[in-house]
Amino acid sequence: MEKTLKQNEPLVKHIYTADPSAHVFDGKIYIYPSHDIDHDGPTNDNGDQYAMEDYHVLSLDGFDSPCVDHGEVLHLKDIPWAKQQLWAPDAAFKNNTYYLFFPARDHDGIFRLGVATSPNPAGPFTTQENYIPGSFSIDPAVLVDDDNRAFIYFGGLWGGQLEKWQTGSFIPDAEGPAESEPALGPRIAELSEDMLTFKEDPKEISIVDENGQPILAGDEERRFFEGPWVHKYNGYYYLSYSTGTTHCIVYAMSKNPEGPYVYKGKILTPVLGWTTHHSIVQFEDKWYLFYHDSSLSGGVNHKRSVKFTELKYNEDGTIQTIDPYK
Ligand code: FUB
């Protein structure tokens, strides 16, 4: 357990953690990260090196308290439908229950989204037998809106397989759109009241520029790659995500949870390591960005550590860009 918390330092150092989804539950901050495996195996663009097998939950009473690791809360061996790769999870609270949403490859090697439940935000979580029907790709993020409707956002390119679902079915050899075509957007679906199924077929979210034109697939500085996260501030929905190949966290805004979202700018400049993945949460009267980098492992892409830093808005609701190394 780390005794003191510092901005832009690993929250914990005894395990590698990544893809932090932070929430305030019962007045405490709970972080739902991936648990990176400390291996030295081969790596590739498909992300096979991200071979995670379980989840831990971290929590903070506040930023002047130690970070508590609540230990393993769900393991691959207890998820009947999943074969490998427990990637970036998220959690939500509704119906007096905590829900852990997570991606994994099924026994056919196709990424699906699963859900597990607990009466306690720190778990342990009990999984549903099967993945969410109609789910695919990776990186679920759940927003329970002010009217108590819950939306799940998800999707990721390359190893996240989103390109393969453009027709609505899984096409193993499908490629992404041409550079001059609109980029693929993350998907959204409203969740059923019990949070265990989609209420509707997932829809693609449109991300447009300031003139209302779709962000194109070749616009790698701005197009969606993976890691969607949605939070609300002053009546706007903020969709933030990783640009993957250009390694930034960027954001777009909308008045509607389903979009279209208008691209606004950069939240986080590139971190050490290939991936970048984040969440944004309000705690008391301040806002925080949780993110990861590979500094603790000396730059090994699949050995990452969760960190946090304060996030600030401008008067007009835009977000100030963060360089975590300055
Ligand atoms: O941690 C595995 C994958 O790497 C996540 O699902 C992506 O968002 C990227 O961080």
Task: Give a description of the structure.
This protein has 326 residues and is mainly β. The protein has one domain: Tachylectin-2, Chain A, CATH 2.115.10. 0% of the residues lie in helices and 40% in strands. The protein contains no helices and 21 strands. Strands 5, 6, 7, 8 and 9 form a five-stranded antiparallel sheet that branches. Strands 14-18-17-16-15 form a five-stranded mixed sheet, with no helix packed on it. Strands 1-2-3-4 form a four-stranded antiparallel sheet, with no helix packed on it. Strand 7 (97-106) and strand 8 (111-118) form a beta hairpin. The chain is globular and about 50 Å long. The two termini are 26 Å apart. The site of beta-L-arabinofuranose has 13 residues, from strand 1 and strand 15.
Low-confidence runs of at least 5 consecutive residues: none
Assembly annotation: single chain
Major sheet characteristics: 5 strands, antiparallel
Q: What is the fourth-level CATH superfamily?
A: Glycosyl hydrolase domain, family 43
Organism: Mesobacillus foraminis
Family: Belongs to the glycosyl hydrolase 43 family.
Active site: 40 (proton acceptor), 226 (proton donor)
GO molecular function: hydrolase activity, hydrolyzing O-glycosyl compounds
What would you say about this model in short?
By secondary structure, the protein is mainly β. Helix content is 0%, strand content 40%.
List keywords for this structure.
0% helix; mainly beta; binds beta-L-arabinofuranose; 21 strands; five-stranded mixed sheet; Tachylectin-2, Chain A; 40% strand; 326 residues; five-stranded antiparallel sheet
